[in-house]
Design brief:
Elements lengths: L11 H9 L4 E7 L5 E3 L27 E5 L9 E8 L3 H11 L3 E5 L13 H13 L6 E5 L2 H10 L4 E6 L4 H10 L4 E4 L5 H9 L3 E2 L7 H10 L9 H7 L7 E9 L2 E9 L6 H4 L3 E7 L5 E8 L5 E7 L9 E6 L8 E7 L10
Parallel strand pairs: 1-5, 5-6, 6-7, 7-8, 8-9
Antiparallel strand pairs: 1-2, 3-4, 10-11, 11-14, 12-13, 12-15, 15-16
């Protein structure tokens, strides 16, 4: 986080921090011995965990003693350090449940890679991941499926028609994969960095958005922005946001409460030093209203007022479901990152928000 290792790779703390600031959750799906997709980048546990050996040799139940034991991303140019405690390895089902509750967007890689020992040339690998995606009931609008294998993306679209797709490519195959992505009508090409402005221009000419990986230096982020990419993959999203002139709020106090027949959202923001109110106290706030089981009922929007406060309301939900689950999100503006609060149950009275 801004050059300091704070979270384990693909752990819940990292995903919570990413969702809180409006970043996309980039997660890799590897299969255990009993076919359960878990959130881990490598074919082995060795780089990021106290356990060792291949993921495919462990059943899910055998992972109880395994956890992420390092902060940061070993092997990247960013610093790392030993974690003071293990962080549990998540299943993809858990990541998608968290995303559904918070409204976070997910870039999910079907990590069936020809150079990995668990490679499966059949559709079975992608199918097992998509089984979990469909069971999660995450809206396809929150999901991007990426893979180095075109066949995995095709299987994902067959199982979830209309889902956005991204073809990954390493340096040696960036050029041929550009045409493959266009021929197969994928939404994104995700090449290994660096790529040129000419490459991005040609991708756009083929109807593709571009999201290069993995950019962990501010100079790389600025170069990608100049080249015109739509998104980028990084191990340090706060650094990348800062390079692009976006800063996190110092504080975001928000809550929802039931007032008669209305469900009211209210709150205020505290700006970072150096950001004047005329630039920071603007933008949209979104309240997502869900059942206690996180089924989305409605989305309501309000605006930040001149004093960096907001208050808006909607008709309350049926009393039969009890107090609804609510998230409140500032959507960001030209100088500020988004900020998420929740999910929390709506209160029976106005929350006591700190000035």
């Amino acid at each position: 986080m801004n050059g300091t290792p704070k979270f384990g790779e693909e752990g819940l703390r990292a995903f919570r921090h990413a969702a809180r600031h409006g970043f996309v959750l980039e997660v890799d799906a590897k299969l255990t011995a009993d076919g359960v997709p878990i959130a881990i980048h490598d074919a082995t546990f060795d780089r990021t965990s106290n356990c060792s050996g291949e993921v495919r040799d462990y059943a899910l139940g055998q992972l109880r003693g395994c956890g992420t034991n390092v902060l940061g991303s070993p092997g990247s140019p960013l610093p790392t350090k030993r974690a003071s405690r293990l962080e549990r390895i998540l299943t993809i089902a858990e990541v998608l449940r968290f995303a559904r509750e918070t409204g976070a967007n997910v870039n999910l890689e079907i990590k069936n890679v020809p150079t990995d020992p668990d490679f499966d040339p059949s559709p079975a690998y992608a199918d097992r991941v998509m089984d979990v995606v469909l069971a999660s009931r995450i809206p396809r609008s929150q999901l991007l499926i990426q893979s180095f294998l075109a066949s995995s993306l095709d299987e994902a679209r067959a199982r979830m028609p209309g889902v956005a797709t991204s073809l990954l490519s390493i340096q040696s195959i960036n050029e041929p994969y550009l045409q493959t992505a266009a021929d197969n009508d994928y939404d994104f090409i995700s090449p290994e960095w660096p790529v040129s402005e000419d490459y991005v221009r040609r991708a756009h000419g083929l109807g593709l958005d571009v999201a290069p990986f993995t950019l962990d230096r501010a100079a790389e982020v600025l170069a990608a922005n100049r080249a015109g990419v739509e998104a980028l993959i990084t191990d340090d999203p706060l650094m990348a946001a800062g390079a692009l002139g976006l800063r996190p709020l110092r504080r975001f106090d928000a809550g929802a409460f039931i007032q008669g027949r209305r469900l009211v959202a209210l709150g205020h923001m505290r700006l970072p030093a150096g950001v004047p109110a005329r630039r920071g106290c603007r933008g949209r706030v979104t309240m997502r209203v869900m059942t206690p089981g996180a089924r989305l009922l409605k989305t309501v929007r309000g605006r930040v007022l001149a004093g960096c406060e907001f208050r808006f309301s909607t008709a309350r939900t049926s009393k039969s479901i009890g107090p609804p689950l609510v998230t409140i999100r500032f959507e960001g503006n030209t100088v500020l990152l988004p900020r998420l609060d929740g999910p929390e149950r709506a209160a029976p009275r106005p929350p006591n928000l700190q000035p």
